[in-house]
Design goal:
2 copies of one chain form a homodimer. Chain A starts with a helix and ends with a strand. In chain A, helix 7 links the parallel strand 4 and strand 5. In chain A, helix 3 runs antiparallel to helix 7 and helix 10 crosses helix 11. Chain A has 2 domains: 244 residues, 3-Layer(aba) Sandwich (Aldehyde Dehydrogenase, Chain A, domain 1), CATH 3.40.605.10; 144 residues, Aldehyde Dehydrogenase, Chain A, domain 2 (3-Layer(aba) Sandwich). The longest helix of chain A is centred in the first third of the chain and has 20 residues. Chain A is α/β, with parallel strands linked by helices. In chain A, strands 10-9-11-8-7-12-13 form a 7-stranded parallel β-sheet. A 4-stranded parallel β-sheet of chain A has the order 5-4-3-6, with helices on both faces. Chain A contains 14 helices and 16 strands. Chains A, B: Pfam families: Aldedh. Chains A, B: One of its GO terms (cellular component) is cytoplasm. Chains A, B: This is Gamma-glutamyl phosphate reductase. Chains A, B: It comes from Selenomonas bovis. Chains A, B: Pathway: Amino-acid biosynthesis; L-proline biosynthesis; L-glutamate 5-semialdehyde from L-glutamate: step 2/2.
């Protein structure tokens, strides 16, 4: 089969459908999302069967446990996907909301309203739930979507997307608005990244390798998501118990996600008192610590951290630890090594808190809270398509609004310039 | 000289400066912009001298008149640049304005505030005024800027940027925040488009060739600007006099700019009555008309329009004309051939007006007004860095807000997840 040609046909069909979808009434979109949820639950056995085959193959390939866990579906996870679709249906429709309005001295009436982006490409890896989540969010915001999942989940994704498409089209979504790419070759990804004029944006979701490849090669605009080298800075005035609680939560509550902490920085003035308490708490949670020279003087059981450690997203129970002379050094370390995701300071000093928030360059900058809160649901958006680590278009957790653009509507009475 | 190395050093210096610039008080930025304006006016003779040399070389190369006009500076144009900087100084500072704020059930206080993008690359062609305009807007929004102008204006741009840098740094802008690229080779452009991690965005301003090259090759995010294949649709119920007035204005008031009209569509029901009136008015303004078969039946003096005409930005006194059976056909033609810039309908029918605005896919969709109004000043933004024809980040005229990103600031009291 000619991959390039088939891919282009899919994108063209999506683009055609996007015109009608852009002006589809909210009620039809919501009804379709609920029908998609029902279809997933009613035909769960089809999805589970496909998933069992994916899992079997992945096990035979010797893929590691964390990977298998991301790939695995069960009735509970399918119910979660369905619930996600129903929650998206219940959210306010972002389309046609206005956010700027003026009448100019010459009488022109100018309004800016939200419109869909058009056609969105989603390129993702192991998690089959992305198929349902992304489809629901894109459709709700009036966008057609081209979904390209990873090869390991191909059977699960195919089963899910077939059910979703059938239900969506039956409920009035324009035919072609939901496209699933069955090609698992890299060629399909490369075809998508060069569909300027057909795709309006590509959102990659997955590991650093995938995201880097797409950012470097795409001529379609990309929203970079995901990689998180997040820091906790324990300031001179920190409440030790609070600092330990926040650090343990940020590192261990879900080590594989992007808002988990990778490096802890501690103010030199308290390092000697604080680090032993931290080390004990981390040890209880089986976290391997890697320290700089000063940290290892205080806690000799730590391994030595190398330069590479400071920029590594472990995604695992490993934490690098560095003693810094002051707040300025902490901020400088973070701005050098972070990925622009989430950073937190634990402090009782208002000035330090304020300066940290002002000078640290990241999507989310916390005072006295765990970085684990960087998430569309926790931020009150009701949904999330990913977490942007770039500065253009959207930064931080992306809800429905991030899947829209704007349009100026101008009324005149014959004005010329 | 090693272009790659020097370019990287400039970008690194800009990035370092951007940290301090991001938190510089508004007063210092405004004072610097006014000092830059004063410097331009006081040392105008240096700029004019350099410009005279550029013009001489351009004439010797036989460049055409419209090009020479864009390149040419005189005292009035230098005063305009200075006034532009003073107006930018007078605009509200977009930085730290908040646009989202919530207290979550767990007590977390979440605010979203505007922050600078960081380092902006501007790649432009003949107009030396872009050097001052772009520098002023980028600095006001707290961004460092790397300016790379065209080879034909190299002496003018060098003179302007030296004056601006000296004045800016003396007034407290962090050293390095304003960088001018003296290399006119394509290699300098290609170096910029691959500075991921140093440049946060590239905004190209110039012809379709330059913009296309950058969009296709850049791994740094790009905001596409400029190309405008704009349409006027004269509906069945249009007031003929108004339609002619709007069409003549949209075509002839400034044919070389991107918001000028390139194609006129007319409803079949009125084509026979309307087109002769239009043709007379356009003839008076020396506009060459190129019609489809039906238009040429009515006005046989028109040349024949080819398929290529429908997607051509003439930038000149040429207009393509097509007779369409109805509103739907007009919308379909526009959505097929436009560049997402500006479109207008002339109509007395409310339903047609509404449907046109809803279904046409463009940054600015007008009813009964000339497309020439698509402009940051006309829209009330007080300034303009360009007109985005893409949907991501910013669409339509871009003012200061388009040069910013956002950051979430979160206050807690020890919350963990």
């Amino acid at each position: 089969m000619d991959i390039q040609k088939t891919m282009r046909e899919k994108a063209e069909a999506a683009k055609r459908a996007s015109r009608a979808l852009a002006i589809l009434p909210t009620g039809v979109k919501n009804e379709a999302l609920r029908a998609m949820a029902d279809a997933l639950e009613k035909r769960a056995e089809l999805v589970l069967e496909a998933n069992a085959q994916d899992l079997e193959e992945a096990r035979a390939k010797g893929l590691k446990r964390s990977y298998l866990d991301r790939l695995m579906l069960n009735e509970g996870r399918i119910r979660q996907m369905a619930e996600g679709l129903r929650q998206t249906a219940a959210l306010p429709d972002p389309i046609c909301q206005g956010d700027y309005s003026t009448i100019r001295p010459n009488g022109l009436e100018i309004r800016r309203v939200r419109v869909p982006l058009g056609v969105i490409g989603i390129i993702y890896e192991a998690r089959p739930n992305v198929t349902a989540d992304a489809a629901g969010l894109c459709l709700k915001a009036g966008n057609a979507v081209l979904l390209r999942g990873g090869s390991e989940a191909i059977r699960s994704n195919t089963a899910i997307s077939s059910l979703l498409m059938k239900a969506a089209y039956k409920a009035g979504i324009p035919e072609g608005a939901l496209q699933f790419v069955e090609f698992t070759d890299r060629e399909a990804v490369d075809a998508m990244t060069h569909m300027t004029g057909l795709l309006d944006v590509i959102i990659p979701r997955g590991g650093a390798g995938l995201i880097h490849h797409i950012v470097e090669n795409s001529s379609v605009p990309v929203i970079e998501t995901g990689t998180g080298v997040c820091h906790t800075f324990v300031d001179e005035t920190a409440d030790f118990d609070m600092a330990v609680k926040i650090a343990v939560n940020a590192k261990t509550s879900h080590p594989s996600v992007c808002n988990a902490m990778e490096t802890l920085l501690v103010h030199a003035a308290i390092a000697e008192d604080f680090l032993p308490q931290l080390a004990r708490a981390m040890e209880e949670k089986h976290v391997e610590l890697r320290g700089d020279a000063r940290a290892r003087e205080i806690c000799p059981e730590m391994r030595e951290a190398t330069e590479e450690d400071w920029s590594t997203e472990y995604g695992d129970l490993i934490l690098s630890v560095r003693v810094v002379p002051d707040l300025a050094a902490a901020i400088a370390h973070i701005n050098k090594y972070n990925t622009g995701h989430s950073e937190t300071i634990v402090t009782e000093n208002l000035e330090s808190a304020h300066r940290f928030q002002k000078e640290v360059d990241a999507a989310a900058v916390y005072v006295n809270a765990s970085t684990r809160f960087t998430d569309g649901f926790e931020f009150g958006f009701g949904a999330e398509i990913g977490i942007s680590t770039q500065k253009l278009h959207a930064r931080g957790p992306m809800g429905l609004e991030a899947l829209t653009s704007t349009k100026y509507l101008i009324y005149g009475e014959g004005q010329v310039r």
